[in-house]
Amino acid sequence: MAITVKEVEYIAKLSRIELSPEEVSYFTSQLDKILDYINKLEELSISGIEPSTGVLPLKNVLREDEIKPSLDIQQVLSLAVSKEENHFKVPKVIE
Fold this sequence. Notes:
The chain is mainly α and 95 residues long. It has three helices and two strands; from the N terminus they run αααββ.
C-alpha cells in the first residue's frame, strides 16, 4: 500500500503542521516504508501463539504493611520554618 504526497499533505493539514515540499517528499518515503513493513508483519502466521501483556515476567514488588511508630508531631513541627497550631504554614500558591 503506497502512500501518496496528497495523503501526507492531508495528514500534515490535520496535524496543523506546515511542511516544505522537501519534507513532504521525505515523509512520503518514510511513511511508505513503514506501511510496507506493517504489510510484511500481516503476512506472518500467528495462530497458536498465546497473547502476552509484556515480554518480561512481572512479579509483585509490594511488601506487606507494617505498623510502625510515627514521628512525634512536636519534634517535626520544631523543624518547620512557619507553623500554625499543629500544621505547617506555607505561602498561598493559588490565587
